[in-house]
Design goal:
By secondary structure, the protein is α+β, with helices and mostly antiparallel strands. The chain has one domain. 12% of the residues lie in helices and 26% in strands. Strands 1, 2, 3, 4, 5 and 6 form a 6-stranded mixed sheet that branches. It is globular and about 40 Å long.
């Protein structure tokens, strides 16, 4: 079964490093696909990013959904080291090794 693909703001992480699934892009994707979040749901998450030439090259990672009682919202647990660019899946060059590499190697900032 193919995992549903949903937008997520990778800068919107809780103190445990889980991505909060409460931004407008996430809500719009869930609504458009008529998805209802539930514990254990596997999602393919994406976020906007650019390659070293300024072209769209989304960040991608798989996540598992759970409800955070402390945060009072749905979150997705991800492996931060598994974040990749869409171009990596297409066999293109790896933009993360370029001098202008974006947030792919960044760790979550719970203050955002």
């Amino acid at each position: 079964m193919v995992k549903p693909t949903v937008y997520a703001d990778f800068h919107n992480a809780d103190p445990q490093g889980r991505i909060r699934l409460n931004c407008i892009g996430t809500i719009e994707d869930l609504s458009r696909q008529q998805l209802e979040l539930r514990d254990g749901l596997a999602l393919a998450l994406y976020s906007d990013d650019l390659d070293h030439e300024g072209r769209l090259d989304e960040l991608l990672v798989d996540g598992i959904v759970s409800f955070s009682e402390a945060e009072h919202c749905w979150v997705a647990a991800i492996d931060w080291t598994a974040i990749r660019h869409a171009s990596d899946d297409r066999g293109s060059h790896d933009t993360r090794n370029s001098p202008s590499s974006g947030p792919a190697s960044a760790q979550p900032d719970g203050d955002k």
